[in-house]
Amino acid sequence: MPAGESQHPSQPSAADEAQWVWAEIKAEARRDAESEPALASYLYSTILSHSSLDRSLSFHLGNKLCSSTLLSTLLYDLFLNAFSGDPDLRSAAVADLRAARSRDPACVSFSHCLLNYKGFLACQAHRVAHKLWTQSRRPLALALQSRISDVFAVDIHPGAKLGKGILFDHATGVVVGETAVIGDNVSILHHVTLGGTGKAGGDRHPKIGDGVLIGAGATILGNVKIGAGAKIGAGSVVLIEVPPRATAVGNPARVVEGKEATKLDECPGMSMDHTSFISNWSDYTI
């Protein structure tokens, strides 16, 4: 090591992290198969028979989204080619698994998320649909969007851009428009809409910053920016921009003042802290 340089512990690579998560998933599946023999065949076919997270996820998504005319084998090849050929898709899937495991107390294991969390599965399928969209394979991307909506009750246009570490908690009824952008480490609860305000084309959907928390049933309309670390209260209708680290509540939504400054290191999308510390009445829960 050259003189004057200090040694720092190296961060695990994306590949190492993916391998660690996959090893955890397989260990969890073996344990569950032993404790619940009724699930042994299912766990073997979806997880234990596969050599990687890419293959397991592709197999599971293919079986979930197939139909009489959209065959599981075709979908398996489609998903596997996308995940195996794009390191960003693989690292995003790992980040989303970690998001669910760390933020949702109901998520008992990585394998539980992989197999049973439709928000996670819808998000991974959307990432592939978005890749197809950017490759101008738009009829296939739209067909995949339709199946995702039918099966998971999550309707994300393939043009929408999603970051990493996304949690769709419960996920039912989530709608995300074509030009919406969602940053990293965002948590979105059920029945949230990121929509437009009319039939005009162009850039017309919300832009959600990193670390945002959006409560259940919230609606955000138009090309408005929700700043990093902001909170959107449950049931709110947001038509205005929300500053970073602010809380917006109500219909129409208003930005509320806090009793104390938000800690700079706080990330509501990761902490899942559903309080706003409103100054002129009791704490508002979103």
What key phrases describe this protein's structure?
286 residues; alpha/beta; 6-stranded mixed sheet; 5-stranded parallel sheet; 9 helices; 15 strands; globular
The ordered H/E elements are: HHHHHHHHEEEEEEEEEEEEEEEH
Instruction: Compute the number of helices.
Output: 9
Mean pLDDT, to the nearest integer, reads: 91
Major sheet strand order: 3-6-9-12-14-15
Low-confidence stretches: 1-8
- The fraction of residues assigned to DSSP E strands is 5-15%
Question: How would you summarize the topology of this molecule?
Answer:
Layout lengths: L13 H22 L4 H9 L4 H13 L6 H14 L1 H17 L6 H7 L1 H17 L3 H15 L2 E2 L4 E2 L4 E2 L6 E2 L4 E2 L4 E2 L4 E3 L11 E2 L4 E2 L4 E3 L3 E2 L4 E2 L4 E2 L8 E3 L4 E3 L11 H4 L15
Parallel strand pairs: 1-4, 2-5, 3-6, 4-7, 5-8, 6-9, 7-10, 8-11, 9-12, 10-13, 12-14
Antiparallel strand pairs: 14-15
Helix pairs in contact: 1-2, 1-5, 3-4, 4-5, 5-7, 7-8
If you had to describe this structure to a student in words, what would you say it looks like?
With 286 residues, the protein is α/β, with parallel strands linked by helices. The chain is 41% helix and 12% strand. It contains nine helices and 15 strands. The strands form three sheets. The chain has a six-stranded mixed β-sheet with strand order 3-6-9-12-14-15. Strand 14 and strand 15 form a beta hairpin. Helix 3 (53-65) runs antiparallel to helix 4. The longest helix is centred in the N-terminal third of the chain and has 22 residues, at 14-35. The radius of gyration is 20 Å and the shape is globular.
